[in-house]
Amino acid sequence: MPNIFGTDVPVVGAPLGGGASTVALAEAVTGASGFAFFPAGYRDPDGLAADLAELRRADIEVGVNLFVPDREPVDRAAYRAYREELMPEAAVLGVDLPAEPVADDDHWSEKVALLASQPAAYVSFTFGLPSAKDVARLKKAGSMLLATVTTVEEAYAAQEIGFDAVVAQGSEAGGHSGTHDPRREITPMDTAALTRGVIAATGLPTVAAGGVDGSTRVTELLHSGATAVAVGTLLLRTDESGASTVHKDALASPRFTATALTRSFTGRPARGLLNGFMKRHEASAPVGYPALHHLTRPLRVAAAKAGDTDRLHLWAGTGFRSARTGSARDVIRDLAALG
């Protein structure tokens, strides 16, 4: 399937929320003839607009990724019980946790308006599908729209409301699962198998995401029919990454030997390095994003400052052992087998 991004290298830098994606990282990925997506999640509209303006001034075209707001509020009783369970963890780090759930839509309307008035060539969505009205608005602005999907059924739904392409995210992917239903159990789904299934069912151009640990995997995913392959975890330790030193070091630490999916940090399933917090709290964590994201944020910020990897979310995909230091340009070139 032809590369819909029109780049020489069919490798896409995934949008890495929480500060890991930077303007410098996008520049490095595109400088290696790949394509980069920039995260709008967790960003205020003004900050996002400033970064996109800086990229435009440098004549760098990027895609923009939006988090679709969850529409179901967290159960307040479950939230309070989980907060009570986490208070001893917070006490270790000397922080308090929000007593009541914090609800927000991540400035959804403002960000859609920004991208309608200052269009990006590509806009992707994670955590669900936007309204048909928002789809029409962004397509009218000239953007190609991509939906993150984790099942063939989700891909069908995206096709039905007019999406141009999809990102097939296998269960090996690091960070948040893009599942449209945060309550469903995330069963193992190989990225190549998901990619083949989505293409067979919809015929849509499909970006394969998850489990990338080297050029052999990239080749395998392209042979599965993918238009391009997204990489995230392998960019986290690069010079241009904005990931914390604690996170970068953990990816290379022999202390961590496995990854696992967890709702314990944010109320949505996400894959990270398996640590003590996940082991202690996964079984009792309720579904409830972004309420749990805001609940654990003071704890996570303090843990990062203290270098406490036992209580920190360390997002990582199954290929994390292949993440290395150096320039992201070299990582992209190596993944494309360009040496």
TrEMBL record:
PANTHER family: NITRONATE MONOOXYGENASE-RELATED. It holds the Pfam family NMO. The keyword Cell cycle does not apply. Coiled coil: none annotated. Its cofactor is FMN. Belongs to the nitronate monooxygenase family. NMO class I subfamily. GO terms for molecular function: monooxygenase activity. It catalyses: 3 propionate 3-nitronate + 3 O2 + H2O = 3 3-oxopropanoate + 2 nitrate + nitrite + H2O2 + 3 H(+). This is Propionate 3-nitronate monooxygenase. Keywords: Detoxification, Flavoprotein, FMN, Monooxygenase, Oxidoreductase. SUPFAM superfamilies: Inosine monophosphate dehydrogenase (IMPDH) (SSF51412). The keyword Cytoplasm does not apply.
